[in-house]
Specification:
alpha/beta; Rossmann fold
């Protein structure tokens, strides 16, 4: 496999807090925000509007949905379009949240620094640039394109916080050059992504979707499924989500093979390291992807990759849709050489209704592998803490670029 990067982690080459791996971009979804309210200022001032009744957050990442209860009567989530001046604030906004990122940790951050949320600002480049221009910290998910141009237009910017783990939407090299800290919630959603990968593989192995649809239609076809215990699971990319997936597959009684040429030599608990990708593909009954998209990994799953897989094996993608040549995968499914595919991510999100989406041996979910309440709480806690550290003059703990403190000239 060519040089590449983890979808779920970032390190020396999705590296990560869990240790090593391919340098990464990508990730999974997160929690939402409620549009249209302004919260009262801390220590005085009247709100321009009122926050609505509270509710639990529903999360969204690339799939695009999600809203949270506003912090009014019991919500706990930051309302979109809200500005909360910090105690002693001069009126300038310190922190801009330009996507649907919310949670108690951000609420607490807003008590110390002037914070403004406009959850859809990412969708209008002019509005985004205007909002980001004067701030010291920028909080994004995966939709905001944090380009060199955007960074150049924000002379006070000290830190960019990615509420997630992938960095395909952040120009980290430009941030490094400008002395801006970039932080990401590396590893925060790994348990959730791993559980989703395992659930999808089990659903394919036991044809749960087919059985459910048949029974709903009045059928009762008791055809046998596949038992995964004792079979082989191949993990491509041994960063945080790859390792978490390997752990769960091992607990199911599977032998786990791992391929990651950028991790360096060494033992990964519960994983048989394999140096040759084709060897892993030929031995694995389930193959899961845990990589980021780069020029080297885009279209990795092509006709040759699929042809090297064990006949009837399953492909699970919880990383990035661009890793897969979808036309080649559809051909392999129609030819019966691949037993099934479980796709949480697609090249186009949402995808069209035809092709892979309509295939009976494809299980699809809307980029939600990392979206659980627990994972989103960890994500927001991690980035809010790092933003506070950087703005207070301390080192970021979860920096993924060159700098732990801002070094702007």
């Amino acid at each position: 496999m060519p040089a590449g990067t983890h979808a779920d982690e970032v390190g020396a080459a999705h590296g990560d807090g869990g240790g090593g791996g391919l340098v990464g971009k990508a990730g999974s979804g997160e929690a939402g925000g409620v549009a249209g309210s302004v919260l009262p200022a801390v220590g005085g001032g009247d709100p321009v509007g009122k926050a609505g009744n509270g509710g639990e957050a529903s999360a969204a990442d690339s799939s695009g949905g999600g809203s949270t209860g506003a912090a009014g009567s019991g919500g706990g989530a930051r309302a979109a379009g809200s500005a909360i001046p910090a105690v002693g604030s001069t009126g300038e906004v310190d922190v801009a949240v330009v996507e649907d990122v919310a949670g108690a940790a951000l609420d607490e951050l807003g008590q110390r620094f002037a914070l403004r949320t406009e959850a859809d600002a990412w969708s209008e480049p002019g509005r985004l640039a205007h909002m980001v221009g004067p701030v010291r910290a920028l909080v994004v998910r995966n939709r905001t394109q944090v380009t060199r141009q955007l960074l150049d237009g924000a002379p006070r910017l000290e830190v960019v916080a990615r509420a997630g783990v992938g960095l395909d939407n952040v120009d980290v090299a430009a941030a490094d050059e400008l002395g801006i800290v970039v932080v990401a919630a590396v590893g925060a959603n790994a348990p959730s992504v791993a559980e989703h990968a395992l659930a999808m593989a089990l659903a394919l192995a036991r044809d749960l979707l087919g059985h459910d649809q048949a029974v709903r239609a009045g059928g009762w076809d008791r055809h046998p499924g596949m038992e995964l215990a004792g079979r082989n699971w191949g993990v491509i990319g041994l960063g945080a989500t790859g390792r978490a997936t390997a752990h769960l597959a091992g607990a199911l009684g599977m032998e786990v093979l791992g391929y990651d040429p950028f991790l360096g030599a060494g033992h990964v608990e519960g994983v048989e390291r394999v140096d040759d990708l084709d060897a892993l593909l030929g031995r694995s009954d389930v193959v899961s992807l845990h990589l980021a998209v780069s020029d080297q990994t885009r279209g990795l799953v092509d006709s040759a990759f699929l042809g090297a897989m064990r006949p009837g094996a399953f492909l699970v993608n919880v990383a990035r849709g661009e890793l897969v040549d979808e036309k080649a995968l559809l051909g392999a499914l129609e030819a019966g050489t691949v037993g099934g595919a479980a796709l949480d991510v697609r090249v186009d999100e949402p995808p069209g209704p035809a092709g892979l989406t309509a295939h009976p041996r494809v299980l699809s979910t809307p980029h939600v592998a990392g979206i659980t309440t627990a994972a989103q709480r960890r994500v927001v806690d991690m980035i809010a803490a790092d933003v506070q550290r950087v703005l207070s003059g301390d080192d970021a703990v979860h920096a993924v670029g060159r700098h732990r403190r801002p070094a702007r000239s």
